[in-house]
Amino acid sequence: MPVTPEQQAEIDELRGQTKPTLRAVSEGMEKHLYKAHDVLDHGFVRVIDYMGDDQAICQAARVSYGKGTKSVQNDEGLIRYLMRHWHSTPFEMCEIKLHVKLPVFVARQWIRHRTANVNEYSARYSILDREFYIPRAEDLAAQSVINNQGRGETLTGEEAERVLRYLKDDAGRAYDHYEEMISDEGQQGLARELARMNLPANIYTQWYWKVDLHNLFHFLRLRADSHAQYEIRVYADAICEMVKDWVPAAYGAFEDYRLGGATLSGKAVECIRRMVAGEKVTQETSGMSKGEWREFMGVVEG
Ligand SMILES: Cc1cc2nc3c(=O)[nH]c(=O)nc-3n(C[C@H](O)[C@H](O)[C@H](O)COP(=O)(O)OP(=O)(O)OC[C@H]3O[C@@H](n4cnc5c(N)ncnc54)[C@H](O)[C@@H]3O)c2cc1C
Fold first, then answer.
1. Cα gap 74→249, rounded to integer Å
2. Could you say which of 12, 86, 117, 269 would form a disulfide bridge with 210 (CB–CB 3.0 to 4.6 Å)?
3. Which of 300, 133, 296 minimizes the C-alpha distance to 230?
4. What angle is formed at CA 37 by the lines to CA 31 and CA 38, rounded to 5 degrees?
């Protein structure tokens, strides 16, 4: 269960209280505050706090005393300019604090993003819940034959059933032994910090994760990408929906220049120029490797 009835009651209570403030408020983000957005089978992501809005980015860029805002169009144009020219520090003026519940193997990928502040649930101090990520049948994929870091066809029939059975049985058995080892009934009981090493990587953990908008965009650029593993991509997708409501102009620029855009090498730019001039360019005449050419044609042909 992503959120228990008791946790939901706490969230509802927090959402029921309002306080006047002089700080910048993003109406779009207010509707997400504290609410848990379900991800995977037991996970969630929810906004605990945020600082700044689209205007805060413009204020910082203009180093202004007051609102620092011209018109909405002016602000949007400025934000697009900043994004286009990698003038990134104004985006660092906005921050977000998230509470994320995620499987440990997803957390291992996530924690590689070092430019954030993290506080994780302590499995030395507390007992982890019996909650494991078990993929849906349609997400049980075979190893990709063209990409060592990817997935291919969905598993079917007896093989799919067997894999699901192994995942559930092994996790359940490991947790039974974890509980047994830490129990102090009739024995000393193994320390939690040691017993946890028996738990599989699909068990859920939780953390608070605080990051500024510039580094969040970097995270989303990599993890909302189609090449990212599905299990982290769904978290990035959920965060994208929140960021879209929080800072619509900044997210629009990010979506256009980063998510929708492409980085081209000097050779690729040269090829485009030759193509526009009417020349038939092939991989052999492009000066690119086969892999580069395949990716380049993916950009050119869509
Ligand atoms: C599709 C995909 C596959 C991957 N495969 C692997 C893999 O097989 N093995 C593996 O180990 N990792 C893998 N990674 C992780 C990847 O190498 C990065 O560690 C991860 O994406 C975090 O990126 P980052 O370092 O740019 O982010 P952050 O840690 O948030 O850093 C942001 C930026 O800050 C700067 N920075 C931060 N810390 C330092 C520092 N100490 N020194 C210099 N500059 C710094 C860099 O400019 C960096 O880009 C993969 C990532 C993706 C998206």
1. 11
2. 117
3. 133
4. 165
Domain residue ranges in the chain: 5-133+202-259, 134-201, 266-301
Helix 72-84 × helix 54-62 angle, to 10°: 70
- What is the mean pLDDT for each group of 10 consecutive residues in the chain (302 residues)? 89 92 94 97 97 95 74 88 96 98 98 98 90 92 74 85 95 97 94 95 97 98 94 98 98 97 96 97 96 94 87
Which residue has a Cα nearest atom 49 of ligand 1?
218
301's tokens:
């042909």
Q: What residue type is assigned to position 62 of the chain? A: R
Measured distance CA(223)–CA(233) in Å, rounded: 5
Residue given tokens 């979506």 in the structure block: 255
Q: For tokens 């520090």, what's the residue? A: 89
CA of 158 to the centre of ligand 1 (A): 38
The minimum-distance atom of ligand 1 relative to the CA of 115 is: 30
Residues 218, 149 contacting (CB under 8 angstroms): no
Q: Whose CA is nearest to atom 5 of ligand 1?
A: 149
Q: Give the separation between CA 107 and CA 120, rounded to whole angstroms.
A: 10
| Single-letter amino acid code for the residue at 298 | G
Amino acid at 125: Y
Q: Specify the CATH number for 5-133+202-259; select among 3.50.50.60, 3.30.1360.170, 3.40.50.2300, 3.30.70.580.
A: 3.30.1360.170
| Residues annotated catalytic, as ranges | 223
Question: Rounded distance, CA 132 to CA 263, Å?
Answer: 38
What is the rounded CA–CA span in Å between residue 143 and residue 267?
33
Q: How far is CA 23 from CA 51, 88, 265, in A?
A: 8, 23, 43
From the CA of 232, how far away is ligand 1's center (Å)? Answer: 15
pTM score, two decimals?
Answer: 0.94
